[in-house]
Amino acid sequence: MKHILCFGDSNTWGHNPQAANQWELRYKDNERWTGMLAYALEGRAKVIEEGLCGRSTMFDDPLTALCNGTKELPLCLKSHQPLDIIVFMLGTNDARAIFGANVKEIGRGMEHLIKIARSPESYDIKEIPEILLIAPPLLGEELKDSYYYGIYDEQSMEKLKLLGAEYEKLAKQYQCEFLDAGTIIKTVGRDGIHFTKEGHRLLYKAVLNKLEDKWLNEK
Predict the structure, then answer these.
(1) Residue 32: closest CA among 54, 47, 22
(2) Residue 67 domain-assigned?
(3) What parts of the chain have a pLDDT lower than 70?
(4) For position 100, which CATH number holds?
(5) pLDDT tens for residues 107-161?
(6) Which one, of 32, 1, 41, lies nearest residue 14 by Cα?
(7) How many CB atoms sit inside 10 A of residue 66's CB?
């Protein structure tokens, strides 16, 4: 059985932008893309959900602790080894105004995560996993009327429009598989950031197809 680590932010955790109360803040297992993936691959693969709201590739957030992916990834790799596949989807939080990072700098953060994941020193069991790199979707115009406006701004929106091409270059350089969620998910929820249920379903289908095509062909 394959072991697949999904390492991401709130859109991997399953943040529900339509939540009416705190009990609805996270989509149910059968509504978020990682949960649907786990169900579809039952018996063939174990899907490990490592989504964290606010997680970036490399930044220490002065407002939210424990969200620096570069610091957290080594612990996750040790904890969940051996791993066959890592699915990375990060970059949205890196585009926040507080960090002031440009697209190249966000790309460098993701590059560092790929290097950590590919290093034999990250594991006691010396199996180096394959990587599927997913560029996050664009921010929607709904952002301008949401709580998150100011945390993200127009520059954030422009950065995410360019991030897919930057990640695609990284994927080619490091021989990772690649998906651009911006071409899969055309609309996000009313906060301009988080997936709708339909967005989760679309991403699940795209990830499942990619995994089956590349690594899960065995019946």
Answers:
(1) 47
(2) yes
(3) 218-219
(4) 3.40.50.1110
(5) 999 999 999 999 999 999 988 999 999 999 999 999 999 999 999 999 999 999 9
(6) 32
(7) 11
Give the chain's domain count. Answer: 1
- Asked if the structure places residue 112 within a domain, the reply is yes
How many C-beta neighbours within 10 Å does residue 172 have? 10
Helix (H) or strand (E) holding 60: none
Q: Give the predicted TM-score (pTM) of the model.
A: 0.97
Domain range for 157: 2-214
Per the CB < 8 A criterion, the answer to whether 134 and 179 are in contact is yes
109 CB burial (10 A radius; 0-12, 13-18, 19+): buried
Contact 78, 34 (CB under 8 A): no
124: number of CA atoms within 13 Å, CB side?
6
